[in-house]
Write a structure and sequence with these properties.
alpha+beta, 20-stranded antiparallel beta sheet, 26% helix
């Protein structure tokens, strides 16, 4: 399917394959290390690492820190110190502002320091070895003070060279894509493949030091006259680091049609480097990560285990990766026969499932492979080099996002070749075809009947992967010699869990970000509170364990979980329409991020991080006719025909972005600024409308719930970040708030006619009552709590408080207020958090009481729910484990958010 150009932003995205073609980093031009600071208006913040071990072998870390309104004015500089009071170099820049212009969020990058660090207003220490960026020549030259990297500006070589001192450690870094034009089931057909190379389209320096530099490269994979599969690469460099990080994004723009064997099937997708090999073959070393910090530790020409012993010290030195003494000092029975010892030049580790990897090697191309071991879950780490220097490399989430692979080739020659395969060429080709033939659903009436049996909203040609994306993270080290076992273990650990510095929950609560008052630190001071905290812990632990038990892994799937459980099959409904992958339904993203920001728990952060990386990329279209829309829950992440704002909702990305200043997630949020134009392309209500409707640029029907909450979150974020379109975004935030407030029935009116050019809602001439149980459960409450705090607009406040007050009211109360009741509604427990919020805002004690009544005694989970799992084993289940058949992801997200918000807002008024 070809993209339909609608505006310059989407046209640019189609070229770049990223959420936005042009590069923009908030505050990049303001990033400084050591200008004078004025006096502090707010106290210092203690930052700590999510996991033990600090920075370890990672190149650096960047953290977002929030500040209360008015605490710091623009231009404020910050200093960082360690536990001993020693200055730690830091680079700081703003990433969000309060409406009064003061700093709301700042980002801070550091490449040294251990243990807890203290951030405060002051003069930042400059690093001994600064990151520098030189763009003046034919390449972009980055120096960390430890290594130098030349980045290409055009052609197919992304990284021309990586040097340490005078030694070139790696060169010719490039992207590789293997396309298989046809796939057949079983043993039919002939397998043919063709290779495409990444071709640079544009290179942008987003930051240039002194502590952190970021270079972005956009382009497509090319062979001959065809260019496809857009990529966006970011390279991260930190002062003094001997390593760098790569964030690699691809956007699928190929063709795969259901029922057809021909198409654009990806057989392999990878990043490849050449590594100069200068040492003697017995001083060349191979290291490949196995389970945990386990390693295959070998030399290209091994001198251990031979029939003749060169000497214990020589053998120990080779195993340790140290340069061997001159062979003339060895036992000559070995020295004179070195030419008869094989040189092993090729190694491959394949992780084709989440449960097994195999490792093999051979002497060189054309000769047989020898098994070299295997295991369950490889770390995704490797090294090739020698005593004079070598290259370490790693792919994050290696086994979680299988099929993955590591290749080392030609290590016995002057130049080895390393490939990190994000999609292993030994796996089946990437098959993204829609999974059924439509079963005759060729009219809206039939499709609605299908919805009524499988809960799948099918429509021909809508189940397309065209425009979905996936981001991967890689790390590379330029070593001056083969690292010790201890150093290698640190590098492995950085690949498996990238160190992340974090601000504590107290600071987020104090700053009043993400909806002031909506979350508080866990509190077990009373039995009632402790019981709810236990329930929250149970639900998170259960989902974490279900990911493992059900093997919710894979390149496109990792990070998401299932929607509904099949109690008869003892299995989640992975193959039943809208009951399969969850795709952010009812805001589990917000539940998990709220669970993290109130607790600071690393395991919750990592779970939410994987979910955000998935839902923001795979469940949303980034190019093509539906760019800016997401896909409703289904058997495949893109299968359902409901392409809507509620899944592309910027609210779900805000937490990870502001906590980490991640540029890729920033791209995704910025790309949504103009997503109101998607309502011209696709009417989300097309199958159920009873009156004629043709999308009109000046009168688009947009709902005040799931539609508007998605749009306004993007506008608010652009305004806060002072992005390129922040003034337009601010105007739309304010005008649409005014438009909703002016409706005869406010939010209860349900929807309004929106003018794309003016960004305003027409005020309806007559009151209407149109309330859905879904309207407020895609982040509306959390977003309105932020807006009400940020914008002084009493009429909007009252309109929202009324909605909160009457959703859970009796039908008689609804009718008395609006002239008719709201009809049949659901999700009362989830809406109890609206009661709680309005109760605190208005001081209504009766509403506060009702909040707890609806939380404990309506729908969803209750105290009478089992709150435990039951054991599962054969023959009723595929693998042994546990089940909580009463759990559903909708109820989990709603209970989780209601529990967290009700405790924070009304924890002192529990029954």
């Amino acid at each position: 399917m070809s993209p339909i150009p609608r505006r310059s932003l989407l046209k640019a995205a189609a070229v770049a394959g990223a959420a936005a073609q042009f590069s923009w980093v908030p505050g990049a031009r303001d990033a400084e290390a050591a200008p004078r600071a004025d006096s502090a208006d707010d106290g210092a913040v203690t930052l700590d690492w999510l996991e033990d071990g600090g920075l370890g072998a990672a190149p650096g870390s960047t953290v977002g820190v929030p500040w209360p309104k008015g605490a710091h004015r623009p231009g404020r500089t910050f200093a960082l110190t360690d536990a001993d009071g020693k200055a730690v170099p830091v680079q700081s820049w703003p990433i969000a502002y309060w409406p009064d212009g003061s700093l709301k969020w700042t980002a801070h990058a550091m490449s040294s320091g251990s243990g807890k660090l203290t951030l405060s207003a002051g003069d930042a220490a400059a690093p001994d070895k600064k990151v520098t960026v030189d763009q003046s020549g034919g390449t972009i030259d980055v120096s960390t003070g430890a290594i130098a990297v030349k980045i290409g500006k055009n052609g197919s070589t992304i990284i021309k060279s990586v040097t340490r001192g005078s030694a070139e450690i790696a060169r010719n870094g490039r992207l590789v894509l293997v396309r298989q034009p046809e796939t057949e089931d079983e043993d039919q057909g002939t397998v043919r493949t063709e290779r495409f190379d990444g071709a640079i389209g544009e290179v942008t320096v987003e930051q240039d030091g002194p502590v952190r530099a970021v270079v972005r490269i956009d382009g497509k994979h090319r062979k001959g006259g065809r260019s496809w599969l857009p990529f966006s690469i970011r390279l991260y460099f930190y002062a003094g680091a001997d390593s760098f990080r790569m964030v690699h994004t691809i956007t699928y723009d190929g063709t795969q049609e259901p029922g057809r064997a021909s198409g654009d099937f990806i057989r392999g997708l990878g990043v490849r480097f050449s590594v100069p090999m200068r040492d003697e073959s017995y001083d060349r070393h191979i290291r490949i990560g196995g389970e945990g910090t386990g390693l295959l530790r070998e030399a290209v020409k091994g001198i251990t285990g031979l029939r003749r012993d060169p000497g214990a010290a020589v053998q120990a030195a080779q195993y340790a990766g140290q340069k061997l003494p001159d062979p003339s000092t060895w036992d000559q029975r070995v020295t004179t026969r070195l030419q008869y010892i094989p040189e092993w030049g090729d190694y491959t580790l394949s992780q084709l499932s989440a449960d097994g990897f195999t490792l093999r090697k051979r002497t060189k191309k054309g000769y047989g492979w020898i098994g070299a071991g295997g295991g369950r879950r490889a770390s995704g780490f490797g090294y090739v080099g020698g005593a004079s220097g070598g290259f370490s490399f790693g792919l994050r989430d290696f086994w979680e996002k299988y099929p993955a692979q590591l290749d080392i080739r030609d290590a016995h020659t002057d130049a080895a070749e390393v490939t990190l395969w994000l999609w292993s060429p030994e796996a089946q080709p990437m098959d993204l075809r829609f999974y059924h033939d439509g079963m005759g659903q060729d009219t809206y009436a039939k499709q609605l009947e299908g919805l009524n049996i499988t809960y799948e909203d099918y429509e021909p040609e809508f189940g397309t992967p065209y425009g979905i994306a996936r981001t991967s993270e890689l790390l590379f080290w330029a070593n001056d010699s083969t690292p010790s076992a201890e150093t290698l273990a640190q590098q492995v650990a950085a690949v498996r869990v990238l160190p992340q510095l974090a601000a504590p929950p107290k600071q987020l609560i104090k700053a009043g970000v993400f909806g002031p008052g909506l979350y508080s630190e866990p509190d077990r001071s009373t039995p009632a509170k402790a019981k709810i905290e236990d329930h929250l812990d149970f639900l998170f632990t259960y989902y974490k364990e279900q990911v493992e038990q059900r093997r919710w892994y894979g390149f496109w799937d990792y990070g998401d979980f299932m929607h509904t459980y099949d109690t008869v099959r003892h299995q989640w409904r992975y193959d039943i329409g809208g009951y399969a992958w969850d795709n952010s339904e009812l805001s589990p993203d917000i539940w998990l991020w709220f669970a993290y920001i109130r607790s600071g728990r690393a395991d919750i952060f990592r779970f939410a991080e994987a979910l955000t990386r998935h839902t923001g990329e795979v469940d949303v279209y980034h190019i093509g006719q539906w760019a800016g829309l997401g896909t409703r829950h289904g058997v495949q992440h893109y299968a359902d025909s409901a392409k809507q704002q509620r899944i592309a909702n910027t609210t779900y990305r805000r937490y990870y972005y502001f906590l980490t200043a991640d540029e890729r997630v920033g791209d995704l949020m910025h790309a949504n600024v103009d997503s109101d134009e998607t309502f011209l392309v696709l009417d989300p209500q097309r199958k159920v409308r009873t009156d004629p409707y043709t999308p009109d640029r000046h009168a688009l029907s947009i709902g005040f719930g799931t539609d508007w909450s998605g749009l306004v979150s993007a506008w608010l974020t652009e305004w806060e970040r002072k992005g390129p379109k922040w003034e337009k975004a601010k105007a739309r935030v304010l005008s649409t708030m005014e438009g909703i407030a002016a409706q005869p029935n406010g939010f209860v009116q349900g929807s309004g006619l929106y003018d794309l050019d003016t960004g305003t809602f027409a005020v309806a001439s007559a009151p209407a009552v149109s309330v859905s149980h879904l309207s407020a459960v895609f982040g509306l409450n959390e977003l309105c709590a932020e807006l009400i705090d940020l914008v002084d607009m009493p009429k909007f406040d009252q309109a929202y408080f009324d909605y909160c007050r009457y959703f859970n009211a009796t039908k008689a109360e609804q009718k008395a207020r609006y002239g008719s009741d709201f009809g049949t509604l659901l999700l009362f427990q989830g809406h109890s958090r609206l009661d709680a919020y309005a109760a605190v805002q208005t001081g209504d004690a009766a509403l506060a009481k009702r909040a707890w009544t609806k939380f404990y005694n309506s729908d969803g989970y209750t105290e009478a729910s089992p709150w435990k799992t039951e054991p599962l084993s054969g023959p009723v289940a595929l693998v042994a484990g546990g089940e909580a058949a009463w759990v559903s992801s909708n109820d989990t997200a709603l209970y989780g958010l209601a529990a967290i918000e009700n405790l924070a807002l009304l924890g002192d008024r529990m029954p």
